[in-house]
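User: Here's a structure from my thesis project, written as structure tokens. My advisor, Dr. K., wants to see whether a designed sequence matches the one we expressed. Can you design one independently, without my sequence as a hint?
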């Protein structure tokens, strides 16, 4: 009954792993990819008011114009990207839908799309679903998981249509610096490529690092699709709200798919998010807490014999090296879950170059991080 294409695409490794977690007891989970903070009160209040005021109908296919205007102001101020809210911004059901639409809008069968790995689990499947070929560009710990230009250039062919990148990165926490983005932009311009830039963790950034949008660089305005959303920074994963911005030709093409498949993003979530950009104080406090947890986790991991971890600069993930354990990522994660009662995600879930690593999320309390570290240390002692 099921199409060959869909049958051939594997389920997400994260999903398989979390089925195991659900069956286990007394687990501390560093596996989750979502904030543990509640949605900020004023945003919740706006959502409640939207329901009370019966703002429960479909909105424009593009999304509420008032919200698009707020997003355009934010893009200009924070990302140095100038977009017309009328036809260059599309509100979507999370970045997940925005990614799917972006890939579908630009991909013809057989087109090659470069994915900079390790990367979020949806990138390759979204290309497969569009009958394109995802081409993996690996990166290494030695280079702080920053993609190297020669590795991108080596894989660029006549069939290459686009590059998908993510900064701050899930799962490594790497933040691409301006010069990294400039180099990628040079390749995109030289080879006439589109860049899909997933910036969902843009505000979760530490150590005075700065987030840059590749779409703001010279020559990138018409070849960048910038994706962003409210899930991570605003603790709104369940509200399902994201957005895409690009030139009007691309946004119109994405809107065509969106119109027939989704119609519009949830109206209540859109009303709730209308004033979201005004609530930076909540974000700043969450970032302060994440930063403390990040330091606690990474310092603790580095003090465990057999584990080393690069200090991540963004998002809420650490990506420690577990190669000295002698186990591969999946064995390590499964045994740590079974014997150590700590859930993490095997690094190879995010691409082959993630083998030998695990993803630990620090969107959990400091007490949980301390206890998880104690358990990981004990586990490492036992398997030696
Ligand atoms: N992009 C990245 C890099 C993510 O980590 C996630 C979720 O984990 C998403 C996109 C999906 O986010 P959304 O909730 O906006 O669909």
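Assistant: Designed independently from the structure alone:
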């Amino acid at each position: 009954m099921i199409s060959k294409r869909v049958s051939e695409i594997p389920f997400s490794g994260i999903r398989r792993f979390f089925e195991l977690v659900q069956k286990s007891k007394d687990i501390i989970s560093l596996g989750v990819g979502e904030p543990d903070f509640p949605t900020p009160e004023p945003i919740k209040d706006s959502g409640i008011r939207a329901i009370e005021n019966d703002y429960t109908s479909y909105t424009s296919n593009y999304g509420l114009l008032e919200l698009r205007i707020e997003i355009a102001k934010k893009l200009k101020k924070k990302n140095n990207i100038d977009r017309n809210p009328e036809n260059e911004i599309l509100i979507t059901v999370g970045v997940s839908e925005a990614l799917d639409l972006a890939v579908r809008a630009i991909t013809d069968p057989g087109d090659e799309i470069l994915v900079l790995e390790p990367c979020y689990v949806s990138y390759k499947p979204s290309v497969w679903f569009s009958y394109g070929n995802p081409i993996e560009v690996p990166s290494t710990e030695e280079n702080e998981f920053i993609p190297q230009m020669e590795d991108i250039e080596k894989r660029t062919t006549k069939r290459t249509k686009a590059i998908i990148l993510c900064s701050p990165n899930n799962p490594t926490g790497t933040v691409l610096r301006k010069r990294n983005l400039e180099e990628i932009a040079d390749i995109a311009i030289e080879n006439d490529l589109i860049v899909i830039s997933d910036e969902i963790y843009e505000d979760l950034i530490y150590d005075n690092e700065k987030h840059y949008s590749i779409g703001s660089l010279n020559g990138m305005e018409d070849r960048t699709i910038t994706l962003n959303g409210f899930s991570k920074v605003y603790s709104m994963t369940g509200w399902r709200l994201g957005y895409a911005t690009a030139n009007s030709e691309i946004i119109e093409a994405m809107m065509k798919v969106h119109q027939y498949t989704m119609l519009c993003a949830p109206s209540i979530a859109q009303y709730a998010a209308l004033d979201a950009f005004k609530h930076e104080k909540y974000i700043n406090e969450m970032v302060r807490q994440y930063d403390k947890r990040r330091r606690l986790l990474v310092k603790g991991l580095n003090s465990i014999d057999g584990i080393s971890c690069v200090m991540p600069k963004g998002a809420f993930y650490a990506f420690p090296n577990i190669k000295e354990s002698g186990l591969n990522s999946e064995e390590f994660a499964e045994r740590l879950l079974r014997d150590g009662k700590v859930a993490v995600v095997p690094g190879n879930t995010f691409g082959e170059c993630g083998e030998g690593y695990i993803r630990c999320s620090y969107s959990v309390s400091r007490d949980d991080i301390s206890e998880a570290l104690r358990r990981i240390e004990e586990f490492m002692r036992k398997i030696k």
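When you compare it with your expressed construct, this may help: The radius of gyration is 21 Å.
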